[in-house]
Design goal:
Blueprint: E1 8-19, E2 26-37, E3 41-45, H1 52-59, E4 67-72, E5 75-76, H2 83-92, E6 93-96, H3 110-121, H4 127-140, H5 157-169, E7 175-179, H6 187-204, E8 207-212, H7 215-221, E9 224-229, E10 232-238, H8 239-244, H9 249-256, H10 263-268, E11 287-292, E12 295-299, H11 301-312
Parallel strand pairs: 3-8, 3-9, 6-7, 7-8
Antiparallel strand pairs: 1-2, 1-4, 4-5, 9-10, 10-12, 11-12
Helix pairs in contact: 3-4, 3-5, 4-5
């Protein structure tokens, strides 16, 4: 389902993120641009090390950007911003981290972990009001309010991830960056967490940036997907269109790697291997092109003609 005619909530423009000093400089993200519409789940998919987590962390201001800008609700939130705007961004944009074991403070009780953000953003609240909000947030993610007095090591991975989600929800954000929120969980728990995120989105009108390396999960939860390879977005489309008409060879390789539930089909399946040397970009440089409405791909003129022919076939 497309929400492309809606209001743009987050706009990333020519984002570049660089690590290291001049001599050992590594550009992790190069010239990335995309819009996220209010109320949608925008997926960012790629292999480990492709730069997808770096993009999420740059939007939430954990990683500084070396170029480009991030616009949130019409205001630039990258680079130097006022204290008031910083406070607003902290409250309205939250992140659910990948590892539910490492992202919770082992020495703090759940009550403190969930309410920590409130202490900074809402100093006007009394301890009782905060405790009530913690109970409500825990109930919303399917945990008992009495869990507030326990420590993280007393919980399973799935429960810990729910605590992480409650910590984000209590801030009443509009936009949540979910960084591989289910990759560290058992398969049986993954569906529960995905269903929880879907339900919360409907109830609260949330907008998600969903980061993952598993395209089959993305198909279940995302409205649109951007495919990233070595810090560059190579294709962006509505989810079903991407699955039906993948154009970039890297996207095709990712899709061909998804296991099929039928053993016979799995045996007959042709696995596509992505070889970056197949592109001849020496003279004919690649450009980011809208090849059909809402479907963007990176390619040079020769490749774009081939992609257009494939769509018309």
């Amino acid at each position: 389902m497309s929400k492309s005619l809606g209001e743009v909530l987050v706009s990333v423009r020519n984002m570049e993120v660089t690590f290291g000093s001049r001599r050992n400089k590594f550009v992790a993200v190069k010239g990335v641009s995309f819009d996220i519409y209010k109320g949608e789940t925008f997926g960012l998919v790629g292999e480990s090390g492709s730069g997808k987590t770096t993009i999420g962390r740059a939007i939430i201001r954990i990683n500084p950007m070396s170029d480009g800008e991030v616009i949130y609700k019409g205001q630039r939130i990258s680079g130097k911003i006022s204290k008031e705007l910083d406070k607003k961004v902290t409250q309205q944009i939250q992140m659910i981290f990948q590892d539910p074991m490492a992202s919770l403070n082992e020495r703090a009780k759940v009550d403190y972990i969930v309410s920590e953000g409130l202490i900074n953003v809402r100093p006007d609240l009394t301890r009782e009001q905060r405790a009530e909000m913690v109970s409500k947030a825990l109930l919303e993610v399917g945990l008992l309010p009495e869990f507030a007095s326990r420590f993280p090591h007393e919980f399973s991975g799935g429960q810990r991830q729910r605590i992480g989600i409650a910590r984000s929800l209590i801030m009443e954000p509009e936009f949540i960056i979910a960084d591989e929120p289910i990759s560290a969980l058992d398969v049986s728990i993954r569906a529960q967490v995905l269903n929880l995120l879907s339900r919360l989105q409907k109830e609260r009108g949330l907008t998600y940036l969903f980061i993952a390396h598993d395209l089959s999960v993305m198909r279940f939860i995302c409205d649109r997907i951007a495919v990233i390879h070595k810090g560059v977005i190579v294709e962006l489309s509505e989810t079903e269109k991407l699955f039906e008409h993948p154009l970039h060879p890297y996207t095709r390789a990712l899709l061909s790697a998804i296991p099929l539930p039928d053993p016979d089909s799995e045996k007959r399946k042709i696995l596509e291997i992505y070889d970056p040397t197949q592109h001849h970009y020496e003279t004919d440089k690649p450009v980011w092109t809208e090849i059909e409405p809402g479907h963007f791909v990176m390619g040079n003129q020769e490749e774009l003609e081939r992609y257009r022919a494939r769509l018309q076939a």
